[in-house]
Amino acid sequence: MSGVRESTLAEEIRDLKDLGVEDHVIKRMMDKYNRMLTQMMYYYWKHGRVLPSVFYKLPRGELLVLQAFYEQEIDDNNKELERADKSKSVMYNINLLT
User: Fold this and answer.
1) Phi and psi torsions of 7, nearest 5°
2) 70: number of Cβ within 10 Å
């Protein structure tokens, strides 16, 4: 390790104030980031039993890649649900008496 601490995405969003970004814009960005992170942590806890602390320890770059994977998986799942909904296959439970 180089000993240089990599800043988190949340820290970088907060640092936008130094660049002149207005507080309400930063607040909206932080709210969106926190919602996404919470949803992602829940998803990976539910499906892979990954503890939330793992996400806080990830370098920013890895977290961004994991976020992209999460978003792609959600998109894929939504498309699969849409395909299933469009086909609307009707299934009947038939009990045959013999």
Assistant:
1) -75, 150
2) 17
